[in-house]
Design goal:
By secondary structure, the chain is of the alpha/beta class. It contains eight helices and ten strands. It is globular, with a radius of gyration of 19 Å. It comes from Ancylomarina longa.
């Protein structure tokens, strides 16, 4: 059985991420594990924990036990295990190590931590986890309730790596019974580049339709692929945007260049980042 890992620092974003991870665990039939990383043995009171603001709690373990008590009724995986781990050390390194040694299929985490919104995503532990994790990472913003996945946006650009996310998107769409929007994005009028993107889009459509997944295709030109994709996601009210963590360094580089970091930082829509 797969396992989903949720880093929890008791911030609003991390609790939102936990709720979203419970939904994904139910759909994927996955074990669910929370992890908290302490920088030292000393216990520091969480920055934000509205759910248990009236509770008297003295340890991280007690916080986790209360979280499991609160959220277990919503975790409905038959023979699934909903548990937690506490680690000490560098936050992003310990999260990555827990995912690796715990054989996690997916990490779901808040885009911001307990330090609040004054810390840009580009410098946060979340960005480091996305950058170095060997499994996909879903980053969730603390804006609105991300309660289901019915519409997934999968942008396709001209890089060879862009297609590597297709199997992950297919599995998620199949289990969530979601439709997938394949959006070809380009910044050029070069016919060979556009033709390459259209070819990749057709391959993606064929792969998805083999799994009986509803597909909608579109292609758009814009000044910046990232902005084009994000604008389209808002138009269709997407529940998730699937991107590659790394792309080839070309003029058609789409995600995790400087513009992509801004998109992940600003997007109110959860971002599904697949490692290259």
């Amino acid at each position: 059985m797969k396992r989903i890992l949720v880093p929890v620092d008791f911030s609003g974003d991390s609790i939102n991420a936990l709720k979203f991870a419970i939904y994904l665990s139910n759909k994927l039939g996955a074990h669910l594990r929370m992890v908290h990383v302490k920088k030292s043995e000393k216990f520091v009171m969480p920055f934000h924990f509205d759910e248990l603001k009236n509770e008297i709690i003295h340890t991280v373990q007690e916080y986790f036990e209360k979280l499991i008590e609160l959220h277990s009724p919503n975790y409905q995986v038959e023979n699934g295990v909903f548990d937690f781990k506490i680690r000490i050390g560098s936050v992003y390194r310990e999260i990555i190590n827990q995912a690796k040694y715990g054989d996690s299929y997916l990490i779901v985490m808040g885009a911001y931590g307990a330090s609040g919104f004054e810390e840009f995503f580009i410098g946060s532990n979340a960005f480091k986890v996305v950058s170095y994790s060997t499994c996909p990472v879903v980053t969730v913003q603390n804006e609105g309730e991300h309660s289901e996945v019915k519409t997934i946006l999968m942008p396709i650009d001209a890089s060879n790596e862009t297609r590597k996310k297709i199997p992950y998107v297919t599995e998620l769409a199949h289990n969530c019974k979601a439709e997938v929007h394949i959006l070809g994005v380009h910044e050029t009028s070069n016919s060979s580049v556009i033709g390459k993107i259209e070819h990749y889009m057709q391959q993606a459509e064929d792969y998805l339709q083999e799994k009986n997944i509803k597909v909608i295709k579109n292609i758009r030109k814009g000044d910046n692929n990232t902005i084009t994709a994000l604008e389209y996601a808002r138009e269709i009210d997407a529940d998730l945007i699937a991107i590659m963590r790394e792309q080839a360094e070309t003029t058609f580089n789409m995600f995790f260049g400087s513009y992509a970091q801004q998109m992940v930082n600003r997007s109110e829509i959860p971002i599904f980042s697949v490692p290259n």
